[in-house]
């Protein structure tokens, strides 16, 4: 009888540990997942901060370029003379205004041969 009473607690202890092992394992898995998610969020936050810095740098560069462009446009509009465009185009590119071309009309009966 004494032998029987000593043997019984062992299966109860195993049952209790197996009952507790499932929730403990689940808690451990959840903790690992939470730690991994926290680490990933931290990495994303750092990446987002670097991207914000790059964006701020690009925006400041864009504003500088736009202000320089506006200043150059204002300088050009102050110093530009529209009457000078035709001589400049003729001089630089050899362009001719069509209003400056002479048109020769020939009579229908006469033919001119190209040489």
Question: In summary, what is this structure?
Answer:
The protein contains 3 helices and no strands. The chain has 115 residues and is mainly α.
Assembly state (oligomeric)? single chain
State mean pLDDT (0 to 100 scale).
Answer: 80
User: Helical content, roughly?
Assistant: over 70%
Note the overall shape. elongated
- Whole-Å distance between the termini? 138 Å
Q: What's the total helix number?
A: 3
Q: Please report the total strand number as a whole number.
A: 0
Report the radius of gyration as a whole number of Å.
45 Å
Low-confidence stretches: none
Largest sheet: none
Which sequence of SSEs, written as H and E, runs from N to C? HHH
User: How many structural domains does the protein architecture include?
Assistant: 1
Task: Give the DSSP E fraction (strand runs of 2 or more residues).
Answer: under 5%
Q: Supply the helix-strand structural class.
A: mainly alpha
Structural overview:
The protein has helices spanning 2-7, 9-79, 85-93. With 115 residues, the chain is mainly α. The chain has one domain (13-96). It starts with a helix and ends in a 22-residue tail after the last helix. The mean pLDDT is 80.
Name the descriptors:
115 residues, mainly alpha, 3 helices
Secondary-structure topology with pairs:
Elements: H1 2-7, H2 9-79, H3 85-93
């Amino acid at each position: 009888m004494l032998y029987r009473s000593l043997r019984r607690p062992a299966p109860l202890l195993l049952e209790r540990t197996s009952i507790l092992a499932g929730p403990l394992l689940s808690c451990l898995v959840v903790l690992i997942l939470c730690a991994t998610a926290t680490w990933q969020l931290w990495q994303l936050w750092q990446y987002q901060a670097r991207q914000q810095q790059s964006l701020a740098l690009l925006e400041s560069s864009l504003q500088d370029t736009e202000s320089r462009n506006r200043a150059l446009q204002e300088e050009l509009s102050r110093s530009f003379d529209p009457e000078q465009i035709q001589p400049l185009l003729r001089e630089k590119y050899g362009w001719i205004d069509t209003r400056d071309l002479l048109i020769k009309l020939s009579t229908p009966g006469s033919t001119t041969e190209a040489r």
